[in-house]
Amino acid sequence: MKILVDADACPVVNIVERVAKKYELPVILLCDTNHVLQSDYSEVKVIGAGADAVDFALVNLCARGDIVVTQDYGVAAMILGKGAYGIHQSGKWYTNENIDRMLMERHMAKKARRASGKHHLKGPAKRTREDDERFAESFERLVRNSGI
What we know:
Elements: E1 3-6, H1 13-23, E2 27-32, E3 43-47, H2 53-61, E4 67-69, H3 73-81, E5 85-87, E6 93-94, H4 99-116, H5 129-145
Helix pairs in contact: 1-5, 3-4
């Protein structure tokens, strides 16, 4: 089992690495050429810039039983199809039971934005220490439950 992280602008890389070290699990951080990542623990793979290049590389590297950290619901759906585990940076697990609903909600929100003409949304709220603690607890539980 390995941990793959869609690491472009991912705020939980340090938490992932801390938990991975504890369980002696390999981590691969994937980013595009627009981001510079360095790690003393993880393998860093820089993928050529391009729409969804990192996403497709991540899905191709993913295997049954791996854990994937991503905020992209489309990537989550694809890795679930390969038998991997998925977690959002909020700590929410992607499952076969919730992914269809999440994809539909994303589609409906995009459709509503298009209809209203609002294309520049405010963005997510500033990440808090509580957000990090919630992710760390959920991620470690996922690691333990995934059969290491």
